[in-house]
Every structure is written in C-alpha cells, then in structure tokens.
Amino acid sequence: MLKIESIQNGIVIDHIPAGKGMDIYKLLELDSQKQSIALLQSVRSEKYGCKDLIKIEGFTEPERLEVLGYLNDGVTLIVIRDGKVVKKYHPVPPRTLKNVIKCKNPRCITSTEANCEHIFKLSSSGKYRCIYCNQEASLLR
C-alpha cells in the first residue's frame, strides 16, 4: 500500500474523475511550482469507485483554482491549515475564463492575431462564449 504523508498547510483537490488528474496538474501549471505536490491516480474510493487526487503543500493561491468549477463541478477543494481541515467546498464556475480554452471559430480575431488572449464569459444560459465573436465554447467535462 502506498503511503502519502498528510499535508500541514495547503490544499487537496479531491474527487477528480479517474484519469483527469494529470490534465488538472498541467492546466494549473503545477510543474512550475516550488511546493511539494503529490498526484495520486486511480485511487480506490467507496463512493466513486476510482478517482484521482492532488495534494499541494504550501499552496496559497486559491483564486487559481476557480477554473476547476468549469472543468468539473464534482471536484472538492479541501483547505488545510495546521494539519486540520478549515474549509471544504466545490468550486463554482468562474464568470470569466482567460486562456483556458481556445475559440474554435476560424474567423475569430484570436485565430488570426498573435498574442491575442482567449477570453470567454459565462452567459445567462450557463454557457461560455468568446468575448470577441460570441462563439460558444465546447465543454471539457
């Protein structure tokens, strides 16, 4: 049995669908972080059968995790301080996504101009739309 130490101060990203942990790891650019990070894949779970899990010691940027509300509403974020759980919540979809997804419209300015940021806003219908051409984003879930 693999044993991973509990973290004292940081965050745990729990209930990641099996096989999606590495996608979240890359999206959050955790490879460029200086903190201690544990990515566990295909962990047995009574409730979910199988899941992925990410533990980040010393993580202090919870606003970066807002994008998880777009990716999967079943993910649980657990904030740990002094070895104790201080907050447990599901991220909500952010109002704006910046450089998370790319516009698929070939006529969009983001397709023709270099260094143009891909920005999507959450519409009243609950879908993300490109701010430049109003193209609806395809879901990653």
From TrEMBL:
InterPro entries: Asp_carbamoyltransf_reg_N, Asp_carbamoylTrfase_reg, Asp_carbamoyltrfase_reg_C, Asp_carbatrfase_reg_C_sf, Asp_carbatrfase_reg_N_sf
Residue stretches making up the Aspartate carbamoyltransferase regulatory subunit N-terminal domain: 2-90
Keywords per UniProt: Metal-binding, Pyrimidine biosynthesis, Zinc
Highest rank taxon of the organism: Bacteria
Presence of the UniProt keyword Transcription in the record: no
Keyword Zinc: yes
Annotated Aspartate carbamoyltransferase regulatory subunit C-terminal domain residues: 97-137
Database matches in PANTHER family: ASPARTATE CARBAMOYLTRANSFERASE REGULATORY CHAIN (PTHR35805:SF1)
Name of the molecule in the record: Aspartate carbamoyltransferase regulatory subunit
Species the sequence originates in: Blautia faecis
